[in-house]
Amino acid sequence: MIITKENTPRWLIFLIDITIVVSSVVLAYLLRFNFAIPPSELDPLPLILLYMVLIRSGSFLVARSYASIIRYTSTGDALRVFATILSGSLLFAITNLITFFIIGGFFFIPFSIIIIEFLAVSFGMISFRLLVKLAFLEFLHPEREKVNVVIYGAGEAGISAKRTLDRDAGTKYTVLAFLDDNPNKQGKKLEGVDILSPEKLDHLLELKSIAQIILAIMHFDIIKKQELVAKCLAYNTKVLTVPPMIRWINGELSFNQIRNIKIEELLEREEIKLDEQRISRELSGKVILITGASGSIGSEIVRLVSRYSPRKLILVDQAETPLHLLSLEAAEFHPEPSIEFILCDICNEQRMRRIFETFPPDIIYHAAAYKHVPMMENNPAEAVLTNIKGTTVVADLALEFGVRKFIMVSTDKAVNPTNVMGASKRIAEIYTQALNSKNRTRYITTRFGNVLNSSGSVIPLFRSQIEKGGPVTITHPEVTRFFMTIPEACQLVLEAGAIGEGGEIFIFDMGKPVKIRELAYNMIRLSGLTPEKEIPIKYTGLRPGEKLFEELLNIEENSLPTHHPLIMIAKVREYSLDEVTREIQQLIQMAPGKSNFDIVKKMKGIVPEYKSQNSVFQQLD
Question: 133, 162, 413, 547: which is the annotated catalytic residue?
Answer without folding.
Answer: 413
